[in-house]
Every structure is written in C-alpha cells, then in structure tokens.
Design goal:
7-stranded mixed β-sheet; 183 residues; 6 helices
C-alpha cells in the first residue's frame, strides 16, 4: 500500500519497480488523515498490509526483508522507520503503543485496518491534529494496550525536503540505521 500526494506521483516509478503488488491511494483533497482513512477502508476486510508514504527511499531487498519480518510476527504491528537515538544500541524491540510516531513504513496485521478506521472516525484529537494519523494510531494503540515491534535497521529512509503536510517541519528527518537503498 502506498499513500501518494499528487505532487509526488512522478516519484512512484522506482517504488513500482521494487514492489510488484504496490497499490496506490491518491490524496484527493490534500488531507493526510482522509487519505489514510481511504487506505484503511480499502484494506479493512483483507489480510495484513504494509503502509508506505510517498516521501521514502527503500532499502536494498526491501520486499524480501519486509516479508521476513512479517513472517516472524504476522499478528503484531511493525514499524519499519525510526529516528530514535537508542536504535543503534538497542536494535529491534517492543515499544509501548503510545510511543508510535512517523508513518513512513509500517505493517498492520489482519483486522487492524478496520479497527483503526473505526477509531479514527471518533478520534477526540482530530481538531488539534487534523493530519496526525501517527498520533491517532498511538492513541488507538494506547487505548487497546497494543504494543508494536520497532524494526531496526530502518527499511526505508525519509527523503530530505519540505513536508507537504507542514512546511515548518524539519527538512531532514532521517534514520541513522537505514542501510543504503533504492532512490
């Protein structure tokens, strides 16, 4: 699954080449939360899914590495991007659901897309964070007492550039554990 803003559709060629079954959900109204809800709705009744944003670079052997990680933990959410200082020292680890942030690449197990869609429709902080679907996920995970696996190294890298969601965000939001990859 890939969430794409129209401005970034031209960058999909490399992702399509690397991910044969890529499904793209286009931003229709310039609203990240709405686009994420469309992606959740599309996947709600299907099996597990990997969500990707459109401002990433993939590691080498991305599909193979994601499939291996998911095969080990098919019933748990997995975060494939992190900027945490402890990553290089602590490696992959279980995290409290309330700490979930950054939506560059993550896996949701069967049934969780539908649950998140329902949660998002009544999320009490939508006015405060209209584009914060990572914050919404953290709140959902916290309310469900759901942990997630933080995978290290990061399997995607956040591209350097101006955020289409909020221009005030830092240009460079990079993972220190990303190991090379595809542009």
């Amino acid at each position: 699954r890939h969430i794409a803003a129209p401005k970034r559709l031209e960058s999909l060629a490399a992702l399509r080449a690397a991910i044969p079954n890529l499904f793209v959900v286009e931003d229709q109204i310039r609203n990240a939360m709405h686009t994420f809800q469309l992606a959740l709705a599309h996947q709600a009744s299907n099996g597990g899914v990997v969500h990707l944003k459109d401002d990433i670079m993939l590691c080498d052997r991305f599909v193979e590495r994601v499939e291996a990680a998911v095969a080990e933990r098919p019933d748990d959410p997995i975060q494939f991007f992190s900027r945490r200082g402890a990553d290089a020292v602590q490696g992959s680890r279980w995290m409290s659901g309330s700490s979930f942030s950054m939506n560059q690449a993550f896996y949701l197990p069967r049934g969780m897309s539908g649950r998140l869609l329902e949660f998002s429709e009544t999320w009490s902080r939508i006015e405060e964070h209209p584009t914060g679907y990572d914050l919404m996920m953290a709140d959902a995970f916290k309310s469900w007492k759901q942990r997630y696996l933080l995978h290290v190294p990061s399997l995607v890298q956040h591209r350097v550039g101006v955020s289409l969601i909020d221009r005030r965000r830092a240009w460079s939001r990079q993972s220190a554990t990303f190991e090379g990859g595809l542009l």
